[in-house]
Amino acid sequence: MVVIWRRRNCLDLDQRLSDQGGYPFTRKGLPNMAKASEAGGGRASEVRRTGTSLRTVIVGLGLGLSFQAFPSIAQTPSPPPDTMEARVEACTPCHGNNGQGTSDVYFPRLAGKPAGYLYNQLVAFKNGRRKYPPMNYLLEFLTDPYLQDIADYFATQHPPLPAPELTNVSQQVLAQGESLVISGDAARQIPACRSCHGPALTGMEPGIPGLLGLRPNYISAQLGAFRYGTRTAKAPDCMQTVAARLTEADVTAVAAWLASRPAPANSPPAPKGTYALPFACGSEPD
Questions:
Q1: CA-based angle 184:188:189, to the nearest 5?
Q2: Is the predicted pLDDT of residue 22 greater than 90, yes or no?
Q3: What is the CATH T-level fold of the domain 97-159, as seen in this structure?
Q4: Fewer CB within 10 Å: C terminus or N terminus of the chain?
């Protein structure tokens, strides 16, 4: 059963925290809506929506909690079905229905990615190897088997990929991105992106993600995180090795070109072993 707190109760709770000298963010990094409201303007309503969504996510994923503290809810005569589809509705505010993504440039599409890749990322957030406070907090107390169930669910979803994103970069920049993705740069020991992510850029089972349907800001942010070590993967960390050899201009070009690519109608990841990787990679074990 998924417990959804009433919006009014959420706001009342935050007001009490504010009256007691609460901070703009809690110790776990979640927004204090009452403090945000004091800033005024349209942003306040947006923060209220975010705070409510985060509470929904927290409670939606924590399905093992006891209902003893909520006797009126526990006595509801017709509880909703406890299915994985119902549980992962908690993920939709950021990642969209069925994991198809949203208009937010920094929240990625989850649907159709290899289950092994999704599981590795969930574990990385849980263990703090990937750092984003809301995700770290939400996953901290979930079991690894449950994380695998979540990964398996999103891997089987295949909503249509979004239309290519128009960019305002020059044709020269796009050509640079295309060259790095298709051919790499042997002089700088940079392999082509497609040598790992596949000829069609749809990834490979079990742990290599596709690169289509992502927004340029998300791609550049992740490449930057690998370059500076704020995002890491299992050793040998092949993405960190490659990203460290890229310049800022390379990152901009690769992100712009990938985001401009039309998506094939059918874009599942290639089966394991379809092609050989250029070097050892911890996320794709032998």
A1: 65
A2: no
A3: Cytochrome Bc1 Complex; Chain D, domain 2 (1.10.760)
A4: C
Dihedral of the alpha carbons of 97, 98, 100, 104, in degrees to the nearest 10: 40
- pLDDT score for 220: 96
Tens digit of each residue's pLDDT (9 = 90 or more) over 59-79: 556 554 444 455 555 566 788
- Rounded mean pLDDT of 26-36? 44
Two tokens, residue 213: 């349907």
How do residues 228-277 score in pLDDT, each as one tens digit?
998 988 889 999 999 999 999 999 999 999 999 987 777 889 999 999 99
Asked if domains 97-159 and 171-259 share a fold, the reply is: yes
